[in-house]
Amino acid sequence: MCSKRSHRFFSLAVRALAAGGCIVVTLISAACNRGESGAPGLATPSAPTPLPPAITNYAGSWHGSFSITQCSGRRHCNEARGQQSPFSLLLQQIGARVDGVFQAEGFAMPVEGEVSADGGLTLTGRQASPGWYLPTIELTRFTARRSDTTGLVAELGYRLEYPAGAPNLRINGTAPQTIGGSIVSAALGAPTARNSFAGTWVGKLLLTDQSTADWLGCYPEYRGDEGVYKLTLTQTGDRVAGELQICRHFNVTGAVSGDTLTLDPAVQHAVSSATSVWHLRSLTMTKDAVGQVRGSMTYEFEAVGVPSLNRPPSVSRYQADILYGILEP
Hints:
- The structure is a single chain.
- This protein is mainly beta.
- Helix content is about 5%, strand content about 55%.
- The chain has three domains: about 45 residues, no CATH class; about 130 residues, Lipocalin (Beta Barrel), CATH 2.40.128; about 130 residues, Lipocalin.
- The chain has an eight-stranded antiparallel β-barrel. An eight-stranded antiparallel β-barrel has the order 9-10-11-12-13-15-16-17.
- The longest helix is centred in the first third of the chain and has 15 residues.
């Protein structure tokens, strides 16, 4: 709004023009853009606030290989250096926070970390020994960046330490063992639904209980021992079918409910000096948010009696925890 003095100036100018005079008027726009107090009447536009940089996304199922560059504590470190070893890295991400599972050399551990402002990922993790035959494993180093050519560029290292007196030390060497290396390649797999179990699952078992009736005993498996399994499935709706490999190969069927798979009982016959039968009594596994499965199974080995040796039938029963399962790419 213009001041009273400005209005008077314009009035005089108008009268002068009306009288035929000539007047030169210089207008300062700021004079009419100030209020009575002299404060600006129109705010100067401020610069837009810059958007925060996008956070690099690492979520998903990574599968690839790393080259072993460091090795100590193992019996065959000289042969290990320079070799390539497969790994899997299953991650979920909320903002800059990341967590999931790292798996290599038949071991798996939970991991967590954070994405830095410059896009780098740092992870740490530890899995305590679940039994006498299995080590405590710790991820001592994992620094990674996304790459257009290799998927990930990363340096990693982990440490394994078996319980004192563990039988595996006779095979694997002294404790602790340290492994380090660089990721050679890593591919990000397509996401799968929580209720999808189609594909080939590989993982490790821990024998938590065993019992036997009569003469056979539970050899070669004992409580606390480790084992591996492979489960290959096709899925139609909520039904699955395929093959389970543990002690023997079982043809299996089962059902999916939500994020949980339950297999039906199955039988596998074998013939040797005595007829033997393997029974899969139960198997249940549940998929978590990053795509790893865990669960349990029970199975039996039944040996039919041999009359000529005066041996009655014998049954060995086993119960095992599924420590982990990873879907192969």
